[in-house]
Amino acid sequence: MLAQRTNLFGSSGTAAARAAAKAAVDGGKEIIDFTAGEIWSDLAPAIRDGAIDAINSGINRYTDTIGITELREALARKISHDTSQIWKAEEVAVTSGAKQALFNAAMVLLNPGDEVIIPAPYWTTFPAQVLIAGGTPVFVDTRANGYVPRVIDIQAAVTDRTRAIVINTPNNPTGAVYDVPTLRGIADLAIDRNLWIIFDECYGDFVHGHHTHHPIASIIPEVRSRTLIVNGFSKSLALTGWRIGYLAGLQEVINAVKAFQSHTTSNPNVIAQHAVLAHLRRGDGSYESRLRSRLASARQIGLNVLSSLTRVPVPKAAGGFYFYLDLSRLLQSASGNDGPTTADDIVDSLLSKAGVAAVSGTTFGDPTGLRISYGIPPEKLRIGLSRIVEVLNAWE
Ligand code: PLP
Questions:
Q1: Which residue among 174, 202, 324 is best mutated to probe the pocket of ligand 1, counting the most ligand atoms within 8 A of its Cβ?
Q2: Residues of the chain above pLDDT 70, percent
């Protein structure tokens, strides 16, 4: 009945985990939900005012397919600031969330059979979109190296059919932040083997401890012409529902994206565009600082609770707002005793025994991982994590 391409993807695993949590709530259970890839927060004042002003001005029409010029100019200024290079509005497309930016990139860059290297564990949408675009995802396991890919492993995965590498730093789900030598190695490889770099920096505003986020084009300027920057405001402004993201790269690519987007969604929501523009013009950075310090304190609360784990290492949580637990040791010992064999079993137990919802690493190509989002209210965070520690420590 359906097209063959529907066999290439299922519903996003994180969405499925959210749905399982909701079903438990609907069934009358009190659940602490750690599945969401979003931050619990109020709205940035300039976003609210910008949207209301746009509505009061009667704004209601289509805009340019890839966004109003003023917003693209403001984004070009932001990217210029982030990368210490000059970017023009013609090199930026506004999209309905970063997800659309990634999809556009896949659709305008990939030919059937092209291979795309994706470090694993990975955010599930990366391989799904590559497959939809006719490409083949090729995974590089990062687990043995603290979830940062080793350049030699990426090098070993490159073939004559490799077309692109996806770099997501800070990483969802692992929270890894890629260091400069790694980025430099990947950039050299991309230049040497003539590859595109899809650089997803949606979590770039959230780095912790001594870690720093480095836009790849700022470190190796020669790589800029083969890099597509993907970013958005879902995470940095806690604005998931407003659907504003962007893609920046060679004008030729952006022109192709504009043509493609003109046949899919047309422009992103006009009110949301004006709201983000107002924020970029009027925001003084205090909202972002508050968000960052709220997350820093949630991270610290979480790490304190997780330090009581006995058979699972305390996660590094270098970036983003995820604790990614490595359950491999626990699974090894527990499975011999009729305990859980994969992270899926652990997720099921957490939900049924402890009323806590988290996302199994299986979703991210890693049956030994567990993703816990700490962008939730602090009182729930402490209780929920304590329950997780209790369940995980109970397995022999
Ligand atoms: N990229 C990564 C790594 C993400 O984790 C997400 C959302 O979870 C996105 C892109 C998409 O974000 P949005 O489409 O909401 O801007």
A1: 202
A2: 99
* DSSP-derived secondary structure for 89-137: GGGEEEESHHHHHHHHHHHHHPPTT-EEEEEES--THHHHHHHHTT-EE
Q: Using an 8 Å Cβ cutoff, are 51 and 272 in contact?
A: yes
Q: How far apart are CA 42 and CA 337, in angstroms?
A: 46
pTM of the predicted model, to two decimals?
Answer: 0.96
Regarding whether 159 and 133 lie in a shared domain, the answer is yes
CATH number for the domain harbouring residue 297: 3.90.1150.10
Q: How far apart, in whole angstroms, are the C-alpha atoms of residue 100 and residue 208?
A: 28
Pocket of ligand 1 (CB under 6 A): 37, 97-99, 123, 168, 172, 200, 202, 232, 234, 240, 245
Cα-Cα-Cα-Cα dihedral sign, residues 251, 256, 259, 263 = negative
**Residue 396: predicted pLDDT:** 67
Atom of ligand 1 nearest to the CA of 232: 16
- Tell me, in angstroms, the distance from the centre of ligand 1 to residue 245's CA: 9
The ligand 1 atom nearest the CA atom of 168: 3
Q: Which of 235, 246, 265, 363 to mutate to test the pocket of ligand 1 (most atoms within 8 A of CB)?
A: 235
Specify whether 271 is located in the same domain as 129. yes
Q: What is the mean pLDDT of residues 338-356?
A: 90
Task: Report CA-CA distances (Å) from 309 to 292, 312, 354.
Answer: 26, 6, 16
- Residue-number span of the structural domain to which 389 is assigned: 4-42+286-394
Residue 242 lies in a domain: yes
Q: How far is the CA of 328 from the centre of ligand 1 (A)?
A: 27
Q: How far, in Å, from the CA of 393 to the mean position of ligand 1? A: 32
26 pLDDT more than 90: no
255: domain CATH number is 3.40.640.10
